[in-house]
Amino acid sequence: MARSQWTDVPIISRRARAGGLRDAGFNGSTPYAAADPGIDTLAGYLPQNRAADAEVLPGRDRVTARARDLVRNNGWAAGGVSKEVDSVIGSNFRPLLKPDWRALGLTAGWAREFKEVVEARWRLYADDPRRFGDTTRSQTLPQMFGLAYRTYIIEGEALGLVNWRPHRPTRTTLRLVDPDLLSNPDDGADEARLRGGIEISRDGASRAFHFRQGHRDTSWPDITASFTWKRIAREGRNGRPQVIHFFDKVRDGQTRGISRMAPIVEKLKMEDHYSKVELQAAVINAVLAAFIKSPMGPDVIDDLFADNGGEGFLKYQGARSAFYGDGNGIRVGGARVQTLYPNDEIGMVSTARPAAQFADFESAVLRQIASGMGISYEQLASDWSKTNYSSARAAMIEIWRGWTARRTAFAQGFCQPFFMAWLEEMVMDGHIALPSGAPDFYTFLPAYSRAKWIGPGKGFVDPVKEAQAAAMRVALGLSTLEEEAAELTGTDYADNMEQIKSEIDAMPEGTLHPMQESFAKLLGHNGGPQMTPED
Question: How far is Cα 271 from Cα 503, in angstroms, rounded to an integer?
């Protein structure tokens, strides 16, 4: 066979291509084995290429219903969702304002003062126990963000309405909306410019949303509302958001989200069914652990029934019942030992269930479920028996990276638009003042409202090692005290410094505060040694 002058690959002759290569696997049907319809392992596996919404919208309601049912009734699903909500949002999800003073042409000193004023105003509004920030007055703002994120996990999207309530101290309010209410008017079919209840512009942007005024399935008559729709534009005339819609867009042309639990619904249901079967088997074994065997075989029973209409059998059973009912037995050392009727024997039920492989099988399934939910197996199963510092640290870094990405996406897609609407009211009503000659607020709104949203900290596996590592990152300029406080403990560095300053001022004269000692050691002051990696 000839060889090419450029490579060492043999030049395949026309005759060889015609008949000699089929047995070697070059059947010529497709260049990729993944597209070969003749492979046995892929026979019948023929998924279709559809438009993004043609894939998501037809089965979305059923996927959502199944995901909701699993979270209601399956412990693993409920625990996995709760763990992610607690880790990403937590109990005090809030903005850490970082106005872009360079883009605004202002000073860093103004930025610090503006940050303090805005964050103070936000705390009063968001954490108000009167819950004026919620249109329904049932939750504080951090609680609403947690519920919205939970809805996003289970149903694939979070929906909110930015309302205006003139009679409240702060007129901007947020109303969370059940995604079930977003639908085409009159339950009409999807169209090119109206899909899943969302009007779409020529550019592919959502323009308006159609909300059913009552759920289709309620426990009370609500026919009028359930067949009435209201159209709400995405934004008002001045660009103020009216509808906030957040979901994971994974394909061009996708209009609505799908439950993040969709890839693991089947495995969760199968694991749930398998666990119930094994538990039922264990219960049956426990209930029927022991029994008494009679020596009478089928032939003897037939004879007893045949003689005198079965009176012999009845007498025999009566005698046995009376024997056991009389409590026959003897006592040995205070314990009662039961005696048996003549020729009776004790039998034991085999306790082979749950199966010996149950724990390993369940662990394997839970690993797949944890991977699909984006958390570690140890977190989902609360099983730390095979975990050491290195593996726990590696798992935390990997999971935290995903949680950080989701936190940032959710904050920018859902929380930040509402924060900007609230800040607009504060500035326009004069509650928060801008300096003389400052750039136009509406033109530079993203620069004025720029913020990093912080929630729960990452926590510590080894507090000493991780605190030392944080100090070294700050000393080397790889991080800042603000970033370390937000990531490790979920606190605001500025608030921490204010509290430490007040504690130092309150201490007796001549007493050195622990923070002062730490700074002295870190900076080499007062004769203290410089911090080294060994420290």
Answer: 54
pLDDT tier at 57 (50, 70, 90 boundaries)? very high
Same domain, 107 and 19: no
In this structure, are residues 418 and 126 in contact, taking their beta carbons and an 8 Å threshold? no
Task: Count CB neighbours of 261 within 10 A.
Answer: 25
Residue 161 within a domain: yes
Cβ-count burial of 375 within 10 angstroms (0-12 exposed, 13-18 middle, 19+ buried)?
buried
Taking the mean position of all CA atoms in its chain, how far away is CA 260?
A: 8
Going by C-beta distance under 8 Å and a sequence separation of 6 or more, which residues neighbour residue 279?
A: 354
Instruction: Transcribe 429-452 into DSSP letters.
Output: TTSS---TTPPPTTTTHHHHS-EE
Confidence of residue 208 (pLDDT cuts 50, 70, 90): very high
The answer to which of 76-80, 208-212, 389-393 has the lowest mean pLDDT is 389-393
Is residue 394 exposed (0-12), middle (13-18) or buried (19+ Cβ within 10 Å)?
exposed
Sequence-distant (≥ 6) Cβ neighbours of residue 392 within 8 angstroms: 378, 384, 461
Q: State pTM to two decimals.
A: 0.78
Q: Which two tokens stand for residue 188?
A: 């009409």
* 8 A C-beta contact, residue 281 and residue 353: yes
Is residue 333 predicted with pLDDT exceeding 60? no
Same domain (yes/no): 40, 152: no
The boundaries of the domain holding residue 294 are: 290-348
Asked whether residue 28 is assigned to any structural domain, the reply reads yes
Nearest to 171 by CA among 365, 480, 357, 425: 425
Query: Is 168 within the bounds of a domain?
Result: yes
Euclidean distance between CA atoms 380 and 393, whole angstroms: 16
Q: How many domains does the chain have?
A: 4
Give the residues across from 451 on adjacent strands: 97
Q: Give pLDDT, residue 17.
A: 47
Closest CA to 151 of 233, 75, 212, 89: 89
Asked if residue 161 and residue 214 are part of one domain, the reply reads yes
